[in-house]
Amino acid sequence: MKFRNIDTFYWVATLGSFRAAAEKLNLTQPAISARIQVLEQDLGADVFIRDTKSAELTADGRRLLTYAERLMVLEQDTLAAFSDTTTVKQTIRVGSSETIVSTWLPDFLNSLNQPEFGITFELTVDGTNNLRNALVNREIDLAFLMGPVSEAHVINCELCAYEMVFAATPSLAAKHKQWDLDAISQERILTFASNTRPAIEIAELLKPFRSGGPDMTTSTALGALVRLATKGYGICAIPKAVIHPELASKDLVQLQTTAKLPAIAFTASYMIDSPMSVFLSRICTELTHFLAPQLIKNIYQV
Question: Cα dihedral sign for 113, 117, 120, 123?
């Protein structure tokens, strides 16, 4: 019995379809089906129920999954034990919020680009809700997102928080020496996607001051919002660390206001039963050490 066939079975069972397993393993669906057929011949038992749209396990399949999970963990533990000598690289699928991509993630990934870590990354950038779904559906291994993720099988490691500020072009900011919520609510607000916690909190904060609610342009693409803000399209309400270059160049200035936006907190989250849990735990430990010099009361500082 070949381990690769058990590995293939594990991913079909875990991801819920032959198609998803084929994408994960960079194989064709016929190749996946062929491996499962060989495995079933070796076991003398069917592991998937035929004629169903999803990869539904038989009773024997559920029994096999218990052993497959143990083998996957053993493989990862073995590689971790020989991480200083092995030439095998572990590919970890990382999903990240653009806030983190725009600040410390490139430097952190570069710090892990060392032979002793033996890790490569596949990076997906998306909104928190999509990242949470992708993690639970096991489409990614590790998520850097506005957390924590409230799922029983998810480990959440606190990372950092970001100070949120209002900022605009110097000409727009000059309209008021001191901006109160009433004045801010009369301008267009550029911020996170409408279904995120920051956008909802900002909408609730400004709603009493403008009939019909605030005029908000929202997006998961923070880079696009920053560019719009530098063109005078509105006031951006995003993490100060993200617009650090624009504040330094005076393309944007922070509004003078006593209005305070809640900080947004991020976690590194992964499935507790992931076969890569040893590597993921190690990455979280390395990340904690990496971020420590740039945290003041858990707020990330550029």
Answer: negative
More confident site: 116 or 12: 12
| b/e burial code for range 211-244 (CB count within 10 A of at least 16 → b) | eeebebbbbbebeebbebbbeebbbbbbbbbbbe
Contact predicate 76/280, CB 8 Å: no
Whole-number CA gyration radius for the chain:
24
Q: pTM here?
A: 0.75
Domains of the chain are 3-81 (1.10.10.10), 90-162+265-300 (3.40.190.10), 164-262 (3.40.190.10)
pLDDT tens digits for range 207-246:
999 988 899 999 989 999 999 999 999 999 999 999 999 9
Q: Do 48 and 12 form a contact (C-beta atoms < 8 A)?
A: yes
Is the model's pLDDT at 88 over the cut of 70?
Answer: no
- Length reported for the chain: 302
Asked if residue 263 lies in contact with residue 158, where contact means CB atoms within 8 angstroms, the answer is no
E strands within the chain? 90-96, 119-125, 142-146, 154-162, 164-168, 189-191, 216-218, 235-239, 253-254, 264-271, 295-296, 299-300
Q: Which residues of 2-26 are buried (b: 16+ CB within 10 A; e: fewer)?
A: eeebbbbbbbbbbbebbebbbebbe
